[in-house]
Amino acid sequence: MADAKTPDVIDRSGTPLVEMRDIRISFGGIQAVDGVSIDVFPGEVVGLLGHNGAGKSTLIKILSGAYQADSGQILIDGKPVTIRSPADARSNSIETIYQTLALADNLDAAANLFLGRELTSALGLVDDSAMEAETRKIMARLNPNFRKFNVPVSALSGGQRQSVAIARAVYFNARILIMDEPTAALGVHETAMVADLIKELKAQGLGIFLISHDTREMLDLCDRVSVMKNGQLVGTERVEDVTEDDILSMIIMGKNPKREAA
Amino acid sequence: MTDTSSDKSASSGRGGASRSLFSQLELDLRLLGMIGAFLLICVLFNILTGGQFLTPRNLFNLTIQTVSVAIMATGMVFIIVTRHIDLAVGSLLATCSAIMAMTQTSWAIDLLGIPLGSPALAWVAIVVGIAAGAIIGAFQGWLVGYLTIPAFIVTLGGLLVWRNVAWYLTSGQTIGPLNETFQLFGGINGTLGATWSWIAGLVASVAAVLALVSARRAKKRHDFPVKPMWAEFAVGAIFVVAIMGFIAILNSYQIPERVLERQFAAEGLEVPAGYTASYGLPISVLLLIAVAVVMTVVARKTRFGRYVFATGGNPDAAELSGINTRLLTVKVFALMGALVAIAALVASSRLTFHSNDIGTLDELRVIAAAVIGGTALAGGIGTIYGAILGALIMQSLQSGMAMVGVDAPLQNIVVGSVLVAAVLIDIIYRRRVGG
């Protein structure tokens, strides 16, 4: 599919949707992220690649508000923003779909979709019927086969749970989506469904950061890839400029053979 | 509907004609099991005591004995659902009781100049007691939530600390008799009488039916599937019969003649020939019902309650959803503290005095009530009505054995064993229904 990709149509001349500049964070003396800068433009998917412990998840958790950087800047539409908590990230239209599927297993799909942002009635009480109705609407769009609205999400399959997590991001009109291994727990068919969804969201103009270990999947879905090693950025490349082998040597050796040669 | 995971998974997934009678009624199987266990205990003890157990008098006593533990059990549900534990409730009850007793017999009189015997003393004592309970609870919650000391340790320390704070406050003395207005919350000294009890029952029945109607309307408005009409009527009828039956039982407990004579003599009158009167609904039971309704609404219909269950189900997910789980812990423990203070009001006014050993071993009864009532120690699952039923089951076991004449050590051995067995049954049940 990589060869069928249309030439780069993303306009990267303007201001990036998100820019993370010179981000640093350390845990107990270990520099987990060491001066990394990445950005994403509207309608673009940027993949983050690297070994376990390369710092991808840590970097992205700074954007989603789970961690706070020791230094560095985050700009949205060119304006610096402060993200101290997941709530700050959400108020900047950043939504995250976590590797571990951040769902409360004992609650149903609607309660999870609206967790932290419940719809309330005039009395200030949570309006379960309204939330279920909204959940039915969004799921009809994302996953029409979804029926299990009244059971705890622990009773759902991996793909169904993932669609709840994605519905949460889509429902609240995210402009920036962070997906940490969104297909890691899924079967082939469900993986394809998530891939289609990513393409649709991209077409709607969202900026997406995607983390995955599957290099081939990344070359299919992403417009650019940023490779990290030992907390540092090895480089960011447009996918049409690199081969899978180039990416692998960036991941493993920490350098791009083509650039070295040039 | 966050806390009824088991009945939902049981009633969904199958559609059409194969649905069983129970699933059409959408009744909670666990609830039915607990009611069954309670009825079994009642019938068993009634046979063993030769019909003494199921008398209006004993049922009246049973309800007023259950109130204190049941009120605390509703708070313990939230504590356990958020994966914590509170071992200090019995001792905190003693501290709250001591504070309320000292306020009405000494502090408020000295500081505010309220005359002894004034009803205002009772209200000042209640407000001070509940505030103290909430503050102490919040402090323990802060130690757990912000300083990340395990709740087990914080409240194990609290078990010792608050028992002896109570002792210190009262210099180890028994404080009483308590204010007469205060004593209205104790049970037998404050009841509604027959007429008001019937009115309370009617109001409760109407409220229950209205709740069913509004739930059905909300579902219809969004075109969700609803129960067949006959099932709605059946559930409504069960509610009304249960409420009015309960009132009828309480109302059939007549005030003994010599008590009536004393009451009339106090006003310089004679008891008219053939005059009878009923105790009716105790104010303490009314208080428990109010607490149960409020706590159920909090659990199911407020954001706070939703976050309590979400945090119990997956603390990381709750935090990533922007929920301040640390502050939530403080709030949950503060709520527990306030409920302990309300329980202290009921317990001390039932005795008509404050004593040093008040609330001893209540932590065990409260935790047992919550757990027997289906609160999962792993967190995330539990119901308010379950905890209250659990408290009622525990109390009827204890009262029944006392009436039969079982030795005290044997009573405790049975209660302890029942707790363990109940958890085992719960584990097996959950495995079956996949909850």
Automatic annotation (TrEMBL), chain A:
Chief localisation class = membrane
Keyword annotations for this protein, in alphabetical order, are: ATP-binding, Cell membrane, Membrane, Nucleotide-binding, Repeat, Sugar transport, Translocase, Transport
Q: How does it sit in the membrane?
A: Peripheral membrane protein
Spell out the subcellular localization from the entry: Cell membrane
Q: Record's GO cellular component, any one?
A: plasma membrane
Organism field: Thalassococcus profundi
Which ranges form a coiled coil? none
SUPFAM superfamilies per UniProt: P-loop containing nucleoside triphosphate hydrolases
| Entry protein name | Sugar ABC transporter ATP-binding protein
- Enumerate the Pfam families for this protein: ABC_tran
**Any idea which GO molecular function terms this record carries?**
ATP binding; ATP hydrolysis activity
- Which intervals hold domain ABC transporter? 18-255
From TrEMBL, chain B:
Q: What is any Pfam family matched here?
A: BPD_transp_2
Q: How does it sit in the membrane?
A: Multi-pass membrane protein
Q: Where in the cell is it found?
A: Cell membrane
Can you tell me where the transmembrane regions are?
Answer: 29-48, 60-81, 88-109, 121-139, 144-162, 195-213, 233-253, 279-299, 328-347, 367-392, 413-429
The record's GO CC annotations read: plasma membrane
Q: Which UniProt keywords apply?
A: Cell inner membrane, Cell membrane, Membrane, Sugar transport, Transmembrane, Transmembrane helix, Transport
Q: Which domain of life is it from?
A: Bacteria
Q: What's the main place this protein lives?
A: membrane
The residues forming the signal peptide are none
Which Gene Ontology MF annotations are present?
transmembrane transporter activity
The free-text function statement in the UniProt record for this protein reads: Part of the binding-protein-dependent transport system for D-xylose. Probably responsible for the translocation of the substrate across the membrane.
Q: What is this protein called?
A: Xylose transport system permease protein XylH
Organism encoding this protein: Thalassococcus profundi
Q: What is the lineage of its organism?
A: Bacteria, Pseudomonadati, Pseudomonadota, Alphaproteobacteria, Rhodobacterales
